[in-house]
């Protein structure tokens, strides 16, 4: 076990990994999509009622 | 539900998907008034027929489904546009719903689920808009 680790390289790799992770799109299921649609419709209805 | 037959346009570049969805639509007793395999034709057909509903993919050649959605909503604010796609990323779903898509259906649903969702959408179309 005489492998040497350069902390700066590891930190750089973590940064790159985080960037890739953040760029990865969040995929939704049909249930989540339907819930999002319901929520948006509810907000629209409530906004319509108050105006 | 209305007495008339709902008139639907189908826009998808995959012939097998069009075949499948057309079968579902016809089995429900609805009428397919036009089919498009690209976004420009979808928009042209919408302007021509002004159907009760358009079922549209996102990844369409020439003009994407979300671009077509934006144009349809600008010209016909009461339009019923349903996205039928495999694109499930949150940004796209949110953008389409905010632009006014009536619903957003994933193609990987079972045929029965798609059929039920379609029925629910058609049931929500006001009668006067739903006559041939």
Provide a concise account of the structure shown.
The complex is a heterodimer of chains A (51) and B (132). Chain A is mainly alpha-helical.
Feature tags:
heterodimer, A: 51 residues, mainly alpha, 2 helices, B: 132 residues, alpha/beta, Rossmann fold, 5 helices, 5 strands
Gyration radius of chain B, rounded: 13 Å
Largest sheet of chain B: 5 strands, parallel
Q: What's the N-to-C terminus distance of chain A?
A: 70 Å
Query: What is the rounded distance between the termini of chain B?
Result: 14 Å
Secondary-structure element order of chain B, N to C:
EHEHEHEHEH
Share in β-strands of chain A: under 5%
The proportion of residues forming helix of chain B, as a percent range, comes to 40-55%
Q: What best-fitting shape of chain A do the alpha-carbon axes yield? A: elongated
In CATH, the topology of chain B is named: Rossmann fold
In helices, the fraction of residues of chain A equals over 70%
Radius of gyration of chain A: 22 Å
Average predicted local confidence, pLDDT of chain B: 93
Name of the CATH homologous superfamily of chain B: Response regulator
